[in-house]
Amino acid sequence: MQNYFFNKDIEAKEVDPGVTRKVLAHNENLMVCELHFKKGAVGNLHQHFHEQCTYIISGKFEFNINGVKKILGAGDSTYKEPNVIHGAVCLEEGSLIDIFTPERKDFLK
User: Fold this and answer.
1) Are strands 77-80 and 86-92 parallel, antiparallel or unpaired?
2) pTM above 0.85, yes or no
């Protein structure tokens, strides 16, 4: 089991235009990811069976969770229950942390 994950050693991967992701600490039950969005970048509406929390480090984002839109900024957070439709639009360039349970095996491919 790996206990330490050093950000400097993890390559950011472009996952959508203007969006990069680093998979940080994880095991089969839990995963932490760091994402960076350029202004105007979109996290398209989608759903998955994982529970997810998001913490906004910087920037401003319009989130859409189950059809309800809210603007969030640094220090704000969200919770997404399993299978809920959600997405976000970046209004001001920024970064966020996503936490999933269980881990997103699709992110490890």
Assistant:
1) unpaired
2) yes
**How are the residues of the chain apportioned to helix, strand and coil, as percentages rounded to the nearest 5?**
5, 60, 35
Q: When comparing pLDDT for 72 and 1, which is higher?
A: 72
Go through the chain and tell me how many residues it has.
109
Rg of the chain over Cα atoms, rounded to whole angstroms, equals 13
State which H helix or E strand residue 101 sits in.
strand 94-101
Q: Which two tokens stand for residue 107?
A: 């992110």
CA distance 32 to 99: 5
The full set of domain ranges for the chain reads: 13-99
Q: What is the CATH number of domain 13-99?
A: 2.60.120.10
pLDDT in tens, 38-84: 999 999 999 999 999 999 999 999 999 999 999 999 999 999 999 99
Residue in 49, 61, 56 with CA at minimum distance from that of residue 85 = 49
Rounded mean pLDDT of the chain? 97
Tokens of 72: 């969030």
